[in-house]
């Protein structure tokens, strides 16, 4: 047996365990890297030499290094655009050239172009492409076009002797009515104005109503007036003896176009369609669908409005971005509106452990990993998203310290092989014939 052989065999071990130390060091260095996956090393022996009946190995080499998928711990970050995947899947990122990368690190924020991007500027992908809030920073005002009041009018009410004044003080309007309710409407600039509905019982099972607004908002010559004036939407509600409305005999006109005065500026409300009932589907005791008209009644008891709905709103500015567990990205506005913008896309791979590391906690697919299978969070085995959270590194510090110790000892004993082989080689070199 050659005395030089053990030197080279031990050298392969020293090289392998040096690389093993590099892997452990890399894992420890990324202890606090968001979305980092621990690398796992493997060793393989070198092809042996057969010498007669002896099969002599030639050392060891470091095998392929993999980053097996593990779910990392999830920590609250307090940033609504930070995302953690609870379960399987990878975020999809693209650079300006359109190259795709995949990651579990969910640190995202809006870039200068209002796109959701990671700290390196790679753009987060949704099912519709780049997830962008460009153009969604504000939403325009919407003038009121439909108004629905649901209410009960007291069947035992007594008809007032006074009639609606047309234009008059609040007390005059109240004297002429049994019940009133106020609702805001919006003009074409998003300004809010109050419309007051006054109801008076004019005959058994019959109620008249008028709609009034502040005179100061309708008459430029009376900017300080405290009076109310009719907007010309007088109607009549007729009820059946059982307290249900008789819509065939009722008169419910729409509010016509209104010009609102605001100092030297005027704004318009287009016609507003008024309704007091809505149709809904209920079920009878046998479970069969039943169409029911609800919202307007005349029963004994206090008159009261149970619901008021209108479709207008003022202009809104973006106040918050919300991302649901199924990846829906929505914008919330100062006027209470919510608009869905896109859905975060997640990628699955047939063999996730064979993804190629691209640095920056990014991965690229390989032939072994298979191509990305893209879909929404929570579908087909993809995990759900946690907004305002981040997935931490999967590095187990105790395990890495054990790996360091075993690598160190392995390095040490193999260096001892070199020392021993060197001593034997020195003895052999000193041999001489007698």
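Q: What amino acid sequence fits the structure above?
A:
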């Amino acid at each position: 047996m050659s005395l030089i052989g053990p030197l080279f065999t031990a050298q392969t071990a020293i090289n392998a365990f040096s690389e093993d130390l590099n892997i452990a060091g890399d894992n420890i260095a990324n202890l606090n890297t968001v979305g980092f996956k621990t690398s796992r090393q493997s060793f393989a022996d070198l092809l042996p030499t057969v010498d007669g009946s002896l099969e002599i190995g030639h050392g060891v080499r470091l095998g392929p290094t993999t980053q097996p998928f593990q779910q990392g711990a999830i920590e609250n970050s307090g940033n609504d655009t930070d995302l953690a995947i609870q379960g399987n899947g990878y975020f999809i990122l693209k650079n300006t050239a359109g190259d795709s990368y995949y990651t579990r690190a969910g640190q995202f924020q809006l870039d200068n172009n209002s796109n959701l991007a990671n700290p390196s500027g790679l753009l987060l992908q949704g099912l519709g492409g780049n997830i962008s809030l460009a153009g969604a920073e504000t939403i325009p005002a919407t003038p009121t076009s439909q108004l629905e009041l649901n209410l009960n009018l007291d069947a035992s009410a007594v008809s007032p002797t006074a009639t609606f004044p047309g234009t008059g003080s609040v007390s005059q309007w109240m004297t002429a009515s049994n019940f009133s309710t106020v609702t805001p409407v919006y003009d074409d600039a998003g300004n809010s104005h109050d419309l007051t509905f006054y109801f008076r019982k004019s005959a058994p099972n019959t109620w008249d109503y008028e709609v009034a607004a502040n005179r100061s908002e309708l008459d430029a010559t009376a900017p300080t007036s405290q009076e109310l004036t009719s907007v010309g939407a007088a109607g009549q509600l007729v009820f059946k003896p059982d307290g249900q409305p008789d819509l065939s005999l009722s008169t419910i006109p729409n509010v016509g176009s209104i010009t609102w005065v605001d100092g030297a500026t005027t704004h318009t409300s287009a016609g507003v369609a008024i309704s007091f009932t809505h149709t809904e589907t209920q079920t009878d005791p046998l479970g069969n669908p039943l169409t029911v008209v609800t919202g307007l009644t005349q029963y004994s008891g206090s008159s009261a409005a149970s619901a008021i709905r209108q479709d207008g709103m003022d202009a809104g500015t973006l106040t918050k971005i919300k991302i649901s567990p199924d990846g829906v990205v929505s914008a919330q506005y100062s006027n209470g509106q919510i608009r869905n913008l896109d859905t975060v896309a997640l990628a699955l791979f047939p063999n996730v452990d064979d993804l190629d590391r691209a640095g920056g906690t990014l991965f690229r697919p390989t032939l072994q990993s298979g191509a990305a299978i893209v879909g929404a969070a929570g579908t087909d085995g993809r995990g759900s998203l946690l907004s305002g959270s981040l997935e931490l590194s999967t590095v187990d510090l105790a395990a890495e310290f054990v790996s360091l110790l075993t690598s160190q000892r392995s390095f040490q004993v193999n260096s001892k092989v070199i020392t021993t082989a060197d001593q034997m080689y020195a003895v052999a070199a000193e041999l001489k014939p007698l």
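Q: And what stands out in the fold?
A: The mean pLDDT is 84.
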